[in-house]
Design goal:
By secondary structure, the protein is an alpha/beta fold. It folds into 2 domains: 4-189, inorganic pyrophosphatase (n-terminal core) (Alpha-Beta Complex), CATH 3.90.1640.10; 194-317, Diaminopimelate Epimerase, Chain A, domain 1, CATH 3.10.310.30. The protein is 37% helix and 16% strand. A 6-stranded mixed sheet has the order 6-7-8-9-11-10. Strands 2-1-3-4-5 form a 5-stranded parallel sheet, covered by helices on one side. Bound molecules: manganese (II) ion. Manganese (II) ion binds next to loops.
Length: 319
Amino acid sequence: MMDCAQTAALLRGWDRILILSHASPDGDTLGSACALMRGLVSLHKQVDFRCADEIPEKFTYLFQGIPLGGFSPEHILTVDVADLSLLGSLKGEYEGKIELAIDHHGTHKVFAERRWIEPESGATAEMIWLLLQELGVKPDKAMADCVYTGISTDTGCLRYRNATPRSYRIAAEALEAGADGAEINRVMWESKTRAQLEAERLILNGLEFFCDGKCAMLRVPRSILEKTGVKDSDLDGVAALPRQVKGVLFGITVKEKEDGTVKVSVRANPPADAAALCAKFGGGGHTGAAGCSFSGISLEEAAEKMKAASEEELLDAGY
Ligand SMILES: [Mn+2]
């Protein structure tokens, strides 16, 4: 286990660095990767980036102007990756080759030679901000935009339980360094297509409550994506909806993926623990937000498993 200073010391000696983000990339894994790549480029190092899945269009500005690739990597690190399996289809290719993992998941499963893990960090991007400073990089506007994006997306615009005073401080420092917070928040939180809204309407039609209203579940079958033309990543926001209902402790979203697997997103209200529920199926995450996945079973079978497990979890915890 390493700290920020040791991580910086390690990176100072590296060049030709490949950074990996997790599959189904979010603002934190991409913002962290891009902020770090920008910092390393400013130190005259060569960088490259890979992710198993396509980068959603709303995140492409993070990569603007970063010179990528043109070399074979000497060193490989991951950002915001809690488990090797979260590399998705890249897992096999990089298993055993990752030298460094920078992450903030309390449920991190060791896969890298060296690790810097801070579970109390609201976003991995916060750690990257500190790392840039430790490296002697003066953050420019583009780095600040990347870090702000990671903090905003992982903390729900600094609304969630994982947002600490430090998250606010680093977000403020990013704003001082030129981050366009209002525009980033508009794009991340206040903007959707008509097709996305139509898909949300169809998904909400199937909203189901159980456990006496302490649990709410949304199902996202492929048919809704086919009907509305939205992409998987266009629906990342729906996972936040069931938890908004008063009295709900577990808001569960079960989504059928293109490859036939079922991806589950759990959002919890205190005192419920989303990571504890997902751990029953080999998943993980944070207290307020976690996930797991199923393969070889249908959407409905996965939904039933999650219902039984959440009832059990609520009983065991005595809520
Ligand atoms: Mn994160």
